[in-house]
Amino acid sequence: MTDLAFPSGLPSGQGFVRLRELRDCLQPREVLHWRDLAVDGLAFHSAEVRPGNLFFAIRGAKSDGAAYAQQAVARGAVAVVAEEPLSVSAPVLVVDNCREALADAARFYYREPSKALSVVGVTGTNGKTTTAHLIRACLQADRRQVGLIGTIAYEFGGRRIPAANTTPDPVRIHGYLREMADRFASACVMEVSSHSLDQDRVRGVHFAVGVFTNLSQDHLDYHGDMSAYRAAKARLFQGLQAGSTAVLNRDDAVARAMADELADGVKILWYGTSPEADIRAENVEPGPDGTRLRIVMPNGAVELFLPIVGVHNIENALAAAASALALGASELTVASALEDVRPVPGRLELVEAPGGGPRSERVRTFVDYAHTPDALDKVCETLASVCEGDLHVVFGCGGDRDRGKRAPMGRAVARHAQCAYLTSDNPRSEDPEQIISEMKGGLAESECEVFSVVDRAEAIRLAVQRAKPGDTVLVAGKGHETYQVFKDSVVPFDDRLEAGRALAARRAGWLHR
């Protein structure tokens, strides 16, 4: 079953509730045209309304849901929730904040599903996806059924729904959690974005564990400045209740500010490389295929090989270990799970040409989602430290997003790479050449060889073509994404496929240096 089977991604068979019950839940300041009706489902896009739904007229950045209330009623909405009185024939519940009301109604309609599960919320700028997948692996190794809500997909009960947003809307969140609980899942791992926290999408979710990875520049086009961005992240920890656990990165200065947001009775588990961390890494030996290390945990230590590339992934693994321990998994189970993990799609994912070829002739090629200066710096540093030859980096910056990180992205590459290939990411409404021009500012005084290639597929081919045996190619920015967004279109595009084609062409002799 796919998300397209239902407008909200959810079946309607959750049972009817009465409008009076939702009225009592939402406590509106005014009620118009009152009639007590049966409500079957919640909607906030008029095009998704089905007969029996309660429609929420949410004000967005580009449009006001109130303008679509009449259309929603025409499609069968039995009532409308809005922030101002509306001239429609159906009952109208007037509330102070429609976003909060949507979350509260979803929590009530789906019978508070987060209290039937151990929900782990993971927030931070970088590492959320890898950390979430590692937490799930640790809990599955402990023989638990575990759902996942994150950047790549929403997975539970045999369903895999490609993710439209890192954190979906409240209707999907509470509905998916209810389906997980009804299918006897015991836990769910959820990536929690700053947008979702700011927009009250996770309002009403009871988090058993809150995880903080790190904070660096990103999404300033939305938040405005780092202070507002940090405040949005902090809302996850402000909402933790007594008995929950905060898993915090001892090596990130902002984590201490997150600790100050915690209510009484919330336990803290610190992770990192600091001797003060409760779960820490020692004797770290990075390699081209993974990292050997010793993990010290509260009841002992274990040496293991983490089969995912990158020193930065050690922090992700430690966060996962701390989260699983907080939920009662044993230390041996956690260690075994970490040794068995596989790379997350699009996160330092190794791409190889079909057939491989002699190792001496290979160009190691990785695809990674790194799209912030800090993430790109860490990934480049990792590959530069383990690759034998030169490092070639293909990267771009998204259009209609934080312009302030374009030059810093260039500087991150310049610090580690010998060759940089500046190209398109998701240019959206902006001119790709203008974006590349702004990126070049970060490489102006670098000794790095720079190539500007607007066509992303051609940039990947050029990097693979110019690389010598033993060199490493990194294609950064899009990771698992399978599309490219332009002003008037969205076209299929997968870095992994393009890199594989380029490597196959090189092996066949179709690309010449």
CATH superfamily of the largest domain: Mur-like, catalytic domain
Question: Could you tell me the radius of gyration in angstroms?
Answer: 24 Å
Q: Number of folding domains?
A: 3
Mean pLDDT: 92
Could you give a quick summary of the protein structure above?
The chain has 513 residues and is an alpha/beta fold.
Question: Keywords, please?
Answer:
513 residues, alpha/beta, Udp-n-acetylmuramoylalanyl-d-glutamate--2,6- Diaminopimelate Ligase, Chain: A, domain 1, UDP-N-acetylmuramoyl-L-alanine:D-glutamate ligase, Protein-Tyrosine Phosphatase, Chain A, 3 domains, 11-stranded mixed β-sheet, 6-stranded mixed β-sheet, 32% helix, globular, disordered N terminus
Helix and strand layout, with pairings?
Layout: E1 17-18, H1 19-26, E2 30-32, E3 38-39, E4 42-43, E5 54-56, H2 69-74, E6 79-82, E7 92-94, H3 98-109, E8 118-123, H4 128-141, E9 146-149, E10 153-156, E11 159-162, H5 170-182, E12 187-191, H6 194-198, E13 207-212, H7 220-223, H8 226-238, E14 245-249, H9 253-260, E15 267-272, E16 279-287, E17 290-297, E18 300-306, H10 312-326, H11 331-340, E19 349-351, E20 364-368, H12 373-386, E21 391-395, H13 406-414, E22 419-422, H14 432-440, E23 449-452, H15 456-466, E24 472-476, E25 483-485, E26 490-492, H16 495-508
Parallel strand pairs: 4-5, 5-6, 6-7, 8-12, 8-13, 9-12, 13-14, 14-15, 15-16, 20-24, 21-22, 21-24, 22-23
Antiparallel strand pairs: 1-3, 2-7, 9-10, 10-11, 16-17, 17-18, 19-20, 25-26
Helix pairs in contact: 3-5, 4-10, 4-11, 8-9, 10-11, 12-13, 13-14, 15-16
